[in-house]
Amino acid sequence: TIFPPELRSTVLKLLRRINHRFSSYCYYDITEVDGVNTNELYSAVQLHLSTSSSAVSSAGRLSLTRHLNSSAVTFGLSHNDTLFDTFEGAVFQWEHLITQRPPQSFSWRHVPDEKRVFTLRVKKTHTKSVLNRYLEHITNRAAEIRRNNQDRHLYTNSRGGGSIDSSRPGFPWEAVPFKHPSTFETLAMDPVKKSEIMADLRDFANGEAFYKATGRAWKRGYLLFGPPGTGKSSMIASMANYLNYDIYDLELSEVGSNSELRKLLMKTSAKSIIVIEDIDCSINLTNRTKKPSRVGHHADEDSGGPTLSGLLNFTDGLWSCCGSERIFVFTTNHVDKLDPALLRSGRMDMHIHMSYCSYPALKILLKNYLGIEDGDLSDGIMEELEGVVEKAKITPADVSEVLIRREKMRAVMELLKEMKNRRERKRGGNEDEEQEKRELEMHNRNAEKIEKDNDQMVVDDEKKFK
Ligand SMILES: Nc1ncnc2c1ncn2[C@@H]1O[C@H](COP(=O)(O)OP(=O)(O)OP(=O)(O)O)[C@@H](O)[C@H]1O
Ligand SMILES: [Mg+2]
């Protein structure tokens, strides 16, 4: 009070600076709006502190918030609130400062009325050793919390389209909340194959150390093939629900060129599934040859549509490491039409044949649609179902069509009748069967070769990993 008020803040600042010079602490300011950009670190810190169990508050009052679509309650910090957080044995003191901004008469962009700053105090001895890791930890945790709290998104691209979200200008994807109900529980397929796929996904999601140690880009490719209505799209939704990933549904026919494709793929986030459905129809799979390039002109640019090589460049060329934790899923009804380059090892790590309803798959559908468990039906009916289901060559989609909106026993009888009809029809013409057999043979031949390559690669990897 001995200073006039206009001097007071200056003197306080000065005192603080002197204090800092001689103290054993370092101070860092993290401002909410940094120049013209929003500071991502600020919101990450806020999210981390407000949900961290290790943070201890000395504040008497905190404000509670629940965001739209979010199930978690977070608390906010008021002015001068102080929190202590510990990480790897180091203590971090966070102080939240809010000051009023002088009213602005004119501004190009909206600036909040308040200036909000986190000030971090950390022992000088800790700045080198743990600070970077601590900040990285905060950023990662914030991303994780956001993903778990928010609805996940389904993104799609359209020609000349893009984000209608004004806060992300130039963002080439359109987003809708992703709410597909399909899970691995509801997915009807062979249980052994199912758990194989689930284990593969889990290994992928927890595989950061492996991918780092082996120097491989952290990504994985799945090729889903099989006739329509066998659950390829449902499988993708189940994968996303299982891993809590976003989905980018890439519509290749809406992509003008390879450079556009690159832009799209660069704007996908980590922990996402990038899907290209009906890959055999959506890209000219044979135009891998490049035009001779002129100086200053990229060969593949503006040449009319993306090419397979452009796509492969992203799935496993140099560009594939831009962003990690990506899963690529390609689906097709005609696996024999695919370019062998696409089937080569390292591109599509797992080939999943989605086929007609098998007996184990049928049991899953009966349970999900009618609540029928093992032993609910008489042995006679079960045997009859088992005997006819494979020969009927009925897709899970067609089975569910029969089971839906019917009373339990009527549904089962109806299904049995339908399957028997189909079996009779199949006995007549074998065209479909022949076709499928041919495709499968073709694929197996490719796969055999791929398996060999893969085995070699695994051996190489293991050598490196050890
Ligand atoms: N394996 C399955 N398990 C459970 N439901 C399934 C399965 N396959 C199909 N269905 C049902 O059939 C519907 C259509 O299946 P889906 O869209 O997944 O087939 P698809 O293989 O992607 O077909 P397409 O090749 O035509 O894209 C699903 O919404 C689901 O209700
Ligand atoms: Mg589909």
What does this structure look like?
It catalyses: ATP + H2O = ADP + phosphate + H(+). One of its GO terms (biological process) is response to stress. This is AAA+ ATPase domain-containing protein. The structure is a single chain. The protein is α/β, with parallel strands linked by helices and 466 residues long. The chain folds into 3 domains: 5-100 and 112-149, no CATH class; 154-286 and 302-355, Rossmann fold; 359-428. The protein is 44% helix and 18% strand. It contains 16 helices and 16 strands. The chain has helices at 5-22, 40-51, 124-129, 131-149, 191-205, 208-214, 232-243, 258-266, 279-282, 308-316, 340-343, 359-370, 379-392, 396-403, 408-428, 431-465; strands at residues 25-31, 33-34, 37-38, 56-57, 63-66, 73-76, 82-87, 90-100, 114-123, 153-156, 174-177, 219-225, 246-249, 272-276, 326-332, 350-353. A 7-stranded mixed beta sheet has the order 11-10-13-14-15-12-16. Strand 13, helix 8 (258-266) and strand 14 form a beta-alpha-beta unit. Helix 2 (40-51) crosses helix 4 (131-149), helix 12 (359-370) runs parallel beside helix 14 (396-403) and helix 13 packs parallel to helix 15. The radius of gyration is 29 Å and the shape is elongated. The model is unreliable at 287-302 (pLDDT under 50). Bound molecules: adenosine-5'-triphosphate and magnesium ion. Residues 232-233, 277 line the site of magnesium ion.
